[in-house]
Design a protein that fits this description.
Number of helices: 2
CATH architecture: Roll
Order of helices and strands: EHEEEEHEEE
Strand content: 25-35%
Distance between the termini: 24 Å
CATH topology: 2,3-Dihydroxybiphenyl 1,2-Dioxygenase, domain 1
CATH class: Alpha Beta
Radius of gyration: 14 Å
Length: about 130
């Protein structure tokens, strides 16, 4: 459904540490990296870009906006959450079932160092792979 998502940062060195950790937990490959930003994903397929705002203004997060990453297992959701908190992220909702979405919806929510809200979600009924 999506080609790519771009998230702005005002502190690339700090964001770089955070995103390297959470994308590793999600098993997302680095697509490209520049001096002030990077992208994860595949050349043909969905991608996440993180870097300074293109207009040169301060990057801001959207109120009511969040990006949800698909996780292949519940353990991957847990790893995403742990990596985020260990690398400058803040808690917005610990890993767990959210049956109000559907019976197998297992997710976790965090904020990155710039305040962008992120989530990892597994839709499988199984805990592991």
């Amino acid at each position: 459904m999506f080609s790519h998502i771009t998230l702005g940062t005002n502190d690339w060195p700090k964001a770089r540490v955070f995103y390297r950790a959470v994308t590793a937990a999600l098993k997302l490959p680095v697509f490209m990296e520049r001096e002030e930003g990077a992208a994860w994903g595949e050349a043909i397929g969905p991608k996440l870009f993180v870097g300074p705002a293109f207009d040169g203004q301060a990057a801001t997060f959207g109120n009511g906006t969040h990006v949800a990453f698909i996780a292949d297992t519940r353990e991957t959701v847990d790893a995403f959450y742990a990596a985020a908190l260990a690398h400058g992220g803040t808690d917005e909702g610990a890993p767990g079932l959210r049956p109000h979405y559907h019976p197998n919806y297992y997710g976790a929510y965090v904020r990155d160092p710039d305040g962008n809200k992120l989530q990892a979600v597994c839709h499988s009924s199984k805990g592991g792979a």
